[in-house]
Amino acid sequence: xxxxxxxxxxxxxxxxxxxxxxxxxxxxxxxxxxxxxxxxxxxxxxxxxxxxxxxxxxxxxxxxxxxxxxxxxxxxxxxxxxxxxxxxxxxxxxxxxxxxxxxxxxxxxxxxxxxxxxxxxxxxxxxxxxxxxxxxxxxxxxxxxxxxxxxxxxxxxxxxxxxxxxxxxxxxxxxxxxxxxxxxxxxxxxxxxxxxxxxxxxxxxxxxxxxxxxxxxxxxxxxxxxxxxxxxxxxxxxxxxxxxxxxxxxxxxxxxxxxxxxxxxxxxxxxxxxxxxxxxxxxxxxxxxxxxxxxxxxxxxxxxxxxxxxxxxxxxxxxxxxxxxxxxxxxxxxxxxxxxxxx
Length: 343
Hints:
Blueprint: E1 4-10, H1 38-55, E2 58-64, H2 74-83, E3 88-91, H3 99-108, E4 110-116, H4 121-127, H5 132-145, E5 149-156, H6 164-174, E6 178-183, H7 197-216, E7 222-223, H8 229-237, E8 261-264, E9 269-271, E10 280-283, H9 289-294, H10 322-329
């Protein structure tokens, strides 16, 4: 079977919120909001299909923004995806969702809708805007009733680290299908990014215990251990073992940057990773994605350049988060600042 290739496609910067950890607004308060024209969206779409034809992959789109539903051609784009029977996920806000909208999303092929919770009520609404916390939990039900998988993502920083266990309880109570978290990438905002490696490992331990307790109780929420440092944690606890059949030089997991993922912004700029703010590799209106992949993207596949991970036995499965390393130290290949392993 063909493998999927994922395109994280930001069709607009327009958004109902101004989140304190947002890449669009945190570093530049005067940022001009951009949106793709319909002609640009069509060209981008067919550029992505050309890429998949070239490399014998199946396209999968993560449609996002801003809030993609605010784009005037949002539904037109979904119809285009529907005509090709291409699956997609929406990463957006809860404010414009209702049962009818969610049923329409399902009709056009939406498989998952990802919402964000970045703290309990007071903290989350401080991150985003008043009322956002309650609205987010409420709209999980709309998504589920439409037969779309509801996903809740938390961005973890020193600011909200202690609230993550409570977020898990709230998400499970609301009936979310999937929960995961990733770490805050320093991007010029006002958040404290100085979480220590030991503090982060302790958080993983607490969450691991909660996940296991919920799973033992028959909880239907799937806990997606998205952060690659979970691999290190489970290696230490025995839950992950290096396969005896593993081959030297092969990459089996870890960061998708340079492997099976491309980000496209409303300007048409192509990024190796949206969370790596200096990873622009081209522009979809000027460049063929298939060419970018074997030329400019090669700079993100030199695994021996990782200053710490290249010396670790888990290199093929972990490598931490290069985006966090880049945001902290300005170097994609620098050591992950929350990695506690000595090599």
